[in-house]
Fold this protein.
Amino acid sequence: MSNCKIDLQLDDYATFCRDCHPIARKVHTCGECMDKIQPGDKYEYVVMLYEGDFTTHKTCSACQEIRDRFFDQYYMEMIWETLKDEFDERFPHIGWICRIEGLSEQAIEKLSVKLSGWLEDKAEWWD
Ligand SMILES: [Zn+2]
């Protein structure tokens, strides 16, 4: 199972990290996919203390799911960049992409949109 996950080999961690999962009361922007989190949607709100600075991060539920599926550890706001790097490096041996069973429709949709974009980039190189 875990060999499908991406190992970022992180050697430094936030000193403090707390997360909660509120329901949005106004529109927020997901720090991963940059899509809007709509009022009424559940999202993840994380506060971190890293090298003396507090930072806050908002993540939509689809990105949270994808992060939990593909990463054991992660940098905030790096999911899609990291997945794209993996995709570029390992294509067409993207065995990890089989690990979509059990993801919500929302998460699969998000992954499909990103993948189509990356495939289009590839197609341009082949032309
Ligand atoms: Zn998102």
